Predict the structure.
Amino acid sequence: MKIIFPPLLLLSILFIGTGGCNSTTPLLGTVEIDGSSTVFPITEAVAEEFSKRDSGIRVNVAVSGTGGGFKRFTLGETDINNASRPMKDKESEAALNNGIDFLEMQVGTDGLSVMVDPSNTFAECLTVEELKKIWEPNTKIEYWDDLNLNYPHLKLHRFGPDTDSGTFDFFTEAINGESQVSTDKYQASTDDNVLVRGIGGTKGAIGYFGYAYYEENKNKLKVIGVDGGAGCMKPSTQTIADGSYVPLSRPLFIYVNKASLKRPAVKTFVEYYLEVGRELTGEVGYVAASKSIYQDNQTKLLEN
């Protein structure tokens, strides 16, 4: 027997059967990210918000330091590298040799912060020269009064990032005059949370890492000012943004593998990053890159 459906009912059945005119298939895939512990809070925040919108895409964010991340990135093992410094010539050459083309996108600015343990009542500001005496390769500073006779005879304990860290690269260049040049008389870690515990829990400690981690843990640490020649200045969102916190303000980046952008999951994530990145950068304690820089980033993405 032939069944004849009324026209409106037939349209309803077709609509339900196809999922509707605006039905879309959820994107599936994985985005692999590694690199800087400093940039990690920004990218992690973006990834968390992204997962609420595109739950079918898994975003894995690891932390092996800027340099460690670039080693993987230039081998094509990751889609995105978080970086707290620009890519070095030897790293870009490695990428080229391995057929990796990439986009550099600045996402924010950080003020690398110098901290002491909260019980320290005597150190309020150090000059660049004093910081160099503490961190130079052949340092003679063992006690705080070796640095300043007005300071107590208290053992000085150093904490800082390891040699794969972009923070280490930037600090050593800004303070010691050459990247990777530093004393090895310090406790190193790739995990900024380990440094927080070390500095905050060790009497006589001094150390450094990104501003966002200080903001997140300021009840456990004491930040001190840095005198770069124009007077003592402490890091804050204002002093970092206006450039008065010198010489320890620095740009923050993500590097994107162009080949990875051919995968919808990666391109959709990067598009979302550029959509919400400015807001989330501020929320995690850094200074967001300007609107014009983000527009440049979006232009780069549209061209690839």
Observations:
- The CA atoms of residues 113 and 208 lie 5 Å apart.
- The chain has two domains: 25-109+252-302, 113-247.
- The domain at 113-247 is CATH 3.40.190.10 (D-Maltodextrin-Binding Protein; domain 2).
- The chain has a mean pLDDT of 92.
